[in-house]
Amino acid sequence: MKSKNENIVVRMAPSPTGYLHIGSVRTTLFNFLFARHNGGKYILRIEDTDKERNKKEYEDDILNGLKWLGLEHDEFYRQSERTDVYKGYLKKMIDDGLAYVSKEEPKEEGQRDEVIRFKNPNKKIQFDDLVRGSVEFDTTELGDFVIAKSVEEPLYHLAVVVDDHESKVTHVIRGEEHISNTPRQILIQEAIGAERPIYAHLPVIVDESRKKLSKRKHGAAVWLSTYKDEGYLPEAIINYMALLGWNPGTEQEIFTLQELIGVFDFSHVQKSSAFFDVKKLQWVNKEHIKLLPKEGQRKILLKEIENEPYMAGEPDLDVEKISWKKVSKEETLKHLAEAKKIIEENGNLMEYAEREGKGNVLWPVRYALTGAEASPDPFTMLEILGKEKSLKRLERAIMVLNAKI
């Protein structure tokens, strides 16, 4: 077992068999935060031994997504570039009687008639998990499991153990679904003389029905690229994903990446599943937009509202919705006329609104500009639409309201 005083090395090992999953984002983030908090090393390893399912576009999506999030790795490599390394371990295991070439009877067309199996010592395995505490498995039920198709084609369990050993990985931080892989990997570690890393299995991420988020069931809703394309800030996604299965032990919810690095530890990682709440993500995103410089906020706002109907043409106005609450049409008409005059003269609209009542003035101005009950504030809309277009819309609202009095 590694000492806590030794340099920490973690790794994230996605497979390029699909677009970057938000669950993989969360696992990458926890690895990254743990390494940075402790001054350790974070390795990104592409597990591309499945030649039939791997695609370059998936690898590109993974690499680009993690870079966009700011989760930069310290080392990078692909398993496909390390075939000779695995071959050496396989040959030695066979020579030492720890693995053997097994003749198989293919049950289906295309199946191999020969694989390499690990010689299971049939023992109980116990390990301490940073999240789940003591975990025990009886490996007898695993039998002599397959570790390679041939000496040239290693499978997942062998390649993972060899890579972790050679990279001196101290902590394996991964999703809960991998906990059943641990006993096989510990057996292989013992067979090749590798030190056992410390394990931490993270809680599963679920939807509102408490069903695990999966590519098959949820489709594009589990891809990072979906949220990137919808305009979410990378800082907001990082912040929100950190809160899925972890909390800081305080009331704070909005964090920068550097703040997360400063406070992250495994004592506050929970065992129970984490609910992916899009509404909470939206709130976190809005809070991060507020932290941006004004120009940055404006660019994002323009992207968000560019397809709104009121951006393309004159808004449809409902005369019953122009006034704020119980304010009369006559008083609203007065406020609109005064607001138009102030804007024409480049005066201080807020000063007038504070004197007359913000809702009384700003609601009809905003509604006159957009025709929508929910939209950016009137000052933002005045800036986006420009003085000329804003004055035309205010004049039109005045005409519509005047006709009903």
TrEMBL record:
Subcellular localization is given as: Cytoplasm
Mind telling me which InterPro entries this protein's record contains?
A: aa-tRNA-synth_I_cd-bd, aa-tRNA-synth_I_codon-bd_sub2, aa_tRNA-synth_I_cd-bd_sf, Glu-tRNA-ligase_bac/mito, Glu/Gln-tRNA-synth, Glu/Gln-tRNA-synth_Ib_cat-dom, GluQ/Sye, GluRS_core
Q: Which UniProt keywords apply?
A: Aminoacyl-tRNA synthetase, ATP-binding, Cytoplasm, Ligase, Nucleotide-binding, Protein biosynthesis
**Listed GO MF terms:** ATP binding; glutamate-tRNA ligase activity; tRNA binding; zinc ion binding
Sequence ranges assigned to domain Aminoacyl-tRNA synthetase class I anticodon-binding in this UniProt record: 303-398
- Which amino acid positions bind ATP, per UniProt? 215
For the motif 'HIGH' region, what are the positions? 14-24
Q: Which CDD domains does this entry report, sorted A to Z?
A: GluRS_core
Question: For the Glutamyl/glutaminyl-tRNA synthetase class Ib catalytic domain, which residue ranges apply?
Answer: 8-107, 108-283
The record's top EC class is: ligase
This protein's assembly is summarised as: Monomer.
Role: Catalyzes the attachment of glutamate to tRNA(Glu) in a two-step reaction: glutamate is first activated by ATP to form Glu-AMP and then transferred to the acceptor end of tRNA(Glu).
Family to which the UniProt record says this protein belongs: Belongs to the class-I aminoacyl-tRNA synthetase family. Glutamate--tRNA ligase type 1 subfamily.
Which PANTHER family does the UniProt record give? GLUTAMATE--TRNA LIGASE, GLUTAMATE--TRNA LIGASE, MITOCHONDRIAL-RELATED
Protein name (record): Glutamate--tRNA ligase
